[in-house]
Amino acid sequence: MPASKIHTVKQTLHVIGQRTPKIDGPTKVTGEALYTDDMRLPGMLYCKIARSPHPHARIRSIDASAALAIEGVHAVITGKDLPVPYGILGWSRDEHALCLDKARHVGDAVAAVAAESEALAVRAVDALVIEYEVLPPVLSIDDAKTLVDEPVNGRARSGNVLKRVELEFGDLKGEFAKSDKIFEADYFFHGTTHAAIEPHCAIAKVDGASRLTVWSSTQVPHYLHRELALVLGLEESRIRVVQPNLGGAFGGKSEPFDLEFCVAKLALITGHPVKCLYTREEVFYSHRGRHPMRMHFETGVDAEGKLTAVRSKIEMDGGAYASFGVVTTYYSGQLMTAPYALPAYAFDSTRYYTNKPACGPKRGHGTVQPRFAFEVQLDEIAHDLHIDPIELRRRNFIGDFTETINGQRITSNGFLECLAAVEKASDWKARRSSLPAGVGLGVAGSMYISGTNYPIYPNDMPQSGVQAQIDRSGRVTLFSGASDIGQGSNSMLASIACEELGVDRRDVVVVSSDTDLCPVDLGAYSSRVTFMAGNACVDACRHLRTQILEVLRSEWHIDEPLDIFAGEVRTKDGKHRLPVKEAFRLAEARLGSLGSMGWYNTPKLGGEYKGGSIGASPAYSFTAHVAEVEVDRETGLVDVKRVWIAHDCGRALNPMTVEGQMEGSAYMGFAETLFEEHAVDARGLHLGPNLLDYRLPTPLDTPDFEAHIVETFDPEGPYGAKEAGEGPLHSVIPAIANAIFHATGARLRELPFTPAKVLAALRATSIPERLPPLEP
Amino acid sequence: MKTLVSLDVNGRTYEIAVSPELTLLEALRYELGLTGSKQGCDKGDCGACTVLVDDRPTLACLTLAVAVQGRKVRTVESLAQANVLHPLQDAFDQHGAAQCGFCTPGILMSAVSLLEQGGDAPDRLSIKKALSGNLCRCTGYTKIIDAVEDVAANTSSPGPPGHTGS
Amino acid sequence: MLPLPPFAYHRPRDLEEAVALLSELGPDAKLIAGGTDLLPNMKHGLLAPKHLIALDAISDLDRVEVLDDGSLSIGALTRLSDLAVHPTIRVLIPVLAEAAAEVASPQIRNMGTIGGNVCLDTRCVYYNQTQFWRSALGFCLKKDGDTCHVVKGGKQCVAACVGDTVPALIVLGAAARVLGPEGMRAVPLEALYTTPGSDHLKLARNEVIVRFEVPRPGERLRSGFFKLRLRRSIDFSSFSIAAALRLDGRTIQDLKLAAVALNSKPRVLNAEKLGVLGQDLTKEVMSHIGEQFQRRATPLDNINVDSQWRKEVIAVLVRRLLERVSAVGAQTASVSS
Ligand SMILES: Cc1cc2nc3c(=O)[nH]c(=O)nc-3n(C[C@H](O)[C@H](O)[C@H](O)COP(=O)(O)OP(=O)(O)OC[C@H]3O[C@@H](n4cnc5c(N)ncnc54)[C@H](O)[C@@H]3O)c2cc1C
Ligand code: SF4
Ligand code: FES
Ligand code: FES
Residue C276: which CATH number? Predict the structure, then answer.
């Protein structure tokens, strides 16, 4: 594996760190930006997928004759047409584009049709005669443990267990024995889903040269590329995957889905372009959202509130397929070892298969749930020990440039600054003790990865590549496989080119997420894009910069350092200056056509044990939230009035987009705390797979978010940057839980906090006197 | 059976043959190629398809194309004039109010209608109310409300185009 | 996309033509006003009328007028957003403006009409779902099936009447003016609803609601509306309650409460039934009324909000509404029409 490259921070920055509108902002506000469903190809057919109405059933037979008899119906395919299994993780390829033998959840894909209109395709699906043999469904973790005669998925290790991870670090027994007090409780995190506003859509086309192009609303074009080749039995070099503008993803589009294989196969069969657009209901069935987790946490402390040992036992309801589940199982334990120092730590996590839509990576993959549990437990400890909850967290701070108990390398760490920022902004000290009953403030903290050094398929190639090209008009074109899913990664790349090459933003073009045109980037997941594609882009642009400056130094016969900014190359004293566009032409004349490849790979990281590299990140981000709530004691309705977010993102390459990520993350966490529930009932039916029953908060429900950026300049991140897209979700949830406790004395350990649950908890609580103010 | 209808969209008249069951959203997106208006649910739950019909925010997914004959339809494509962004579009861009941008056309149309109502500059609560039929999954709404507030505070509202006497 | 089933579209120019069309086309025809209830239901395969008869080309159906005798006339096609801001309605009968303002979302209020709201199909978590979802459930009594999932073993659909303006119109003593082949008739709003939830409107298939008549509110009328919902917008009711109250000093002269989002009929109680006529409206009496109402209202699992919790909070919600309504002064200003 090539060594990683560490970019030292330049002295003066001109573009990086500025609030800059996004390069695709104008086309998004005019409605010109094309999303997958905005494309229409001549002769295009429409695909609809027939789905199982049973949570668990063997497919006896499929009779397509009536469907095929409808005029305008071109083809019907079933599992037999796509028999090769796939899966985002190579070692758990446990799903088929269309079920081969049995259906594993309501909504599982069974057959697909292509017809000349969507309405016709719907009719054709209705005309399919599918015979099922209904099997007893496994609909809960308890079912999964007992109903093992007909396992949900044949890939299970044993029974319905996909994966169990047990790891222990430090002297757990000894540390617990030393503890002055041990706190123990059960917590529950419910299922929630991404609910991007754009439903999944894919279009496939085969050209005269038998090359297949798939346009898809995916956040992982590279993995989709690989899996398409695998399942279709085509060479990768004959497939092109393009991700058009994407209408939100959040982890919900980070693996291949049935529709992509179906449109590709149908295009190959019919010779027509084929489109498939999910209905909103299908989006809910494709899911891959937050795993419901039952969690038991046990935490020991000394009399000063210093943590001694933490042990968790976690059970996850994973749904019908593995998805990223093996990673989820690790993440649920591996990412809990900061920002607090843990002298000893152990976790035991198990992910079960059930007959429900598969869970996967939703923003904050695998860690949002245990983080909720642990941060609530910390609040319980603080309350019990009469220590201010912010102070308790400070006392246990792990520090920067250190290592966690499970062997993860921590670089920059601004957690204390995050705590200070939310403490100050919320006027914590004064208001915590003076708020009227029913109103409360709660705090929580967290950490998250900036990508991991663990590629999904083992290989030693770079995680991200960027190509930069300069043409004679003075324009810089960047080619990047990274997926802009709304988070603004293309704009981030453009900013880097502007910084390094002194060009105006209007003179940067970013060509992204097209496997024909762009070097590979592994995808928009694990908060890796800014860190990895950013570093690759710095690498590409620095090559060019160095070359161009060298040409000018020799042209000007000088030796001193030069700077490029605001469209000019110049010496410090300004004696020599030249517009960059001319500099580019000069350099091209001297050196030949200008272009360069940059890339990034992570250094070798992680503990020396099995699974030690899962969750090992080149840098960790840190977050603290304070939430203010008002609880209606007669109804149990909770109103979150305000949320203060402080996030250590390393350097904020563009504070405006960092704030956008912080606000959006806090929104999503807030929403799952109080509003959303992806629930499946005792029949295996989703309780309301639509945006009316699944309540995303509207503007009127959403509190004001106040984002405070904390900068720490990470040595490995591009210009010192770390992630900002997922970390700021985590701690808002326990902050709200802790605020409800502060407001009412009711301790909530089971999400979501529906008014019914809150009211029941209020009734069970004798409201305590507000605690006297605590010394800092 | 298809009937010939004449639709007034963004000041231009389109004559198209439609089936009665075609929604305005399908007509705009798939017949007229005006793909700015988006579909997030197709049944009234999300607001991504919001357009103005006779100046009022309306859900195109629950409107029949045949029913808007004789009415004026305005979509996001009408806002920028000769490549100059509408002040709201500019503010959305400058504030970073569009992340994935999928909700943006619908939200812009609700916001345009709010500002066209004239009167005092709306406060944050009124803005939230006006946008309360539009879901955004990316932004947490903060920057969207900032952008609308900014424009409301800095422009005198002209009223809808074509309306006289202000 | 959720394709609509095919249909023919008719746009009559006057009411008589509409009624004639309804009679002529029979049970395959359906009126469409704003379409915000009908079209989602058609997209869900709950009904597939072969003919839609649009009311929007008929003039004067969207007028709000105060008549000489002080009563109000509200055209059936009046849009909810217009009702919500109508100055006369806001002053004279705020309960109706408040109710209209709480429906759905701004866009849907721009489209939806009061007539459509009153005729809104009953709702149920097992019914307002796609064709596919209902097939996975095995359907239900109300449509294509033979069991009820709300009342296990129930023989009758109990889907909920949830139109927010319904309780408001009821407490105002409003009547619907209905045109049919036989001519015009008046139906008190309260008498419009019946059981079961699968057929909850006492309206013939060929009748059209033309307008609503609200008796003269008089100077002492106080009224108000409260809607319980988990989201502040884009959310149907979990419990909506309207109150109309006349006080003489503090003495209850007249009180009417009506609620929806229970079962297929609104729950209506007046001062007499509550046993508070002539009593002073004290804090205790308000609590007592709340408890009385709670006792007689039974939220069901037809709505996806915990029915036990809804039951528990009804007393509080009713009390709070009474507190609010009795605290503001009765309207006394004279309003010009
Ligand atoms: C996302 C969403 C949220 C919603 N939230 C709410 C809510 O919170 N509260 C609420 O009350 N409603 C809600 N609705 C339902 C609906 O929008 C409103 O009830 C609206 O008022 C219906 O009016 P309409 O004109 O659109 O009715 P339409 O859909 O046109 O008609 C509804 C029914 O009434 C019949 N009808 C209409 N007019 C007449 C007439 N004059 N005479 C006889 N029959 C007639 C029609 O034949 C049809 O059966 C919601 C709808 C959606 C899609
Ligand atoms: S109440 Fe029963 S019969 Fe009626 S819609 Fe609901 S499940 Fe069906
Ligand atoms: S697409 Fe029209 S409201 Fe969602
Ligand atoms: S910007 Fe993505 S949904 Fe609003």
Answer: 3.30.390.50
